Amino acid sequence: MRELSIPTVAGKFDATVAGPREGRPVLLLHGFPQTRLVWRRQIAALAAHGYRVVAPDQRGYSPGARPRLPEDYRMDLLVADVVAITEELGWPAFDLVGHDWGGAVAWWTADAHPGRVRTLTVVSTPHPGALAGALRGDEDQRERSRYMRDWCETPATEERMLAHDAQELRTLYAGKVPRDSTEAYLRHLSRPGALTAALNWYRAGRTDRAIGVVEVPTLYVWSTEDSAFGAAAAQQTGRWVDAPYRFETLQGVSHWVPEEAPEALSRLLLDHLRTHGAYRTATDTPTAHSPRR
């Protein structure tokens, strides 16, 4: 693994890259309150099997791509970041993986750019259409999602989360995230402006358009002890995929799947990529202007 800086019109994204340059490209998107470090076990597993893997710190998490206003974190801009990053990498088509907020961005990217996304893997986060339905009709999901409204208060949320050696942030990890990773996330989010930028994802408001049915091969991994997403939305997600679809449930695992169940997730991800290894898109040819990294 090595560090990489990816320049785009939105700024410079810090990233980790691994695997052979000629390997099949895979992009990994993290969520809140984490960084690209969340994927270190999956990066190693994918690279060992010959994939070219890039995991960026997303908008707001990369100091070089940290706009100030909440509206700078709209979903259309987050999707545009994915497109810009992969174009800079010289990837006309790529496999996309996301967890938590990274999963939401992955769903929206697959919907908006089905010709670019070779396969989709989403961990924890249900399809936004399924989640919206659950929020309308399932009291359990409404209770689980209440924190999203609570975190829109600023700067009170930041002050509360970082008080007493970031005790509230530590509680979110529920003892399921390794100690070294927890400390790394807390150091990152304690830097000036970092936590506000991360919380601006919640404060950006709803997207202007409705998401549709995803038309790329999709693996969705949900865990029974996820505190943010309940069974109702998870079970309805398959209705929003019109392509080969696989739904896997991890029993007794919390929201922090990539770190709590790394071997299981890597095994599922590798199997999904192998199963759809022959899948190609109409735009699966290199662009002439984009550098390869």
Classify the beta-strand content into a percent band.
Answer: 15-25%
Q: So what's the CATH class?
A: Alpha Beta
Kindly report the CATH topology. Rossmann fold
Order of helices and strands: EEEHEHEHEHHHHHHEHEHH
Task: Write out the CATH superfamily name.
Answer: Alpha/Beta hydrolase fold, catalytic domain
CATH architecture classification: 3-Layer(aba) Sandwich
Q: Looking at the structure, what is the overall shape?
A: globular
Spatial order of the strands forming the largest sheet: 1-2-4-3-5-6-7-8
Beta strand count? 8
Could you say which structural class the secondary elements and strand pairing correspond to? alpha/beta
Number of domains: 1
Task: Give the helices and strands, then pairings.
Elements: E1 2-8, E2 11-18, E3 25-29, H1 40-48, E4 52-56, H2 75-89, E5 94-99, H3 101-112, E6 117-123, H4 128-137, H5 139-144, H6 146-150, H7 156-172, H8 179-189, H9 194-203, E7 218-225, H10 231-236, E8 245-254, H11 257-260, H12 262-275
Parallel strand pairs: 3-4, 3-5, 5-6, 6-7, 7-8
Antiparallel strand pairs: 1-2, 2-4
What does this structure look like?
- This protein has one domain (2-275): Rossmann fold (3-Layer(aba) Sandwich), CATH 3.40.50.1820.
- It is 41% helix and 19% strand.
- The chain has twelve helices and eight strands.
- Helix 1 (40-48) packs across helix 12 and helix 2 packs across helix 3.
- The longest helix has 17 residues, at 156-172.
- It is globular and about 50 Å long.
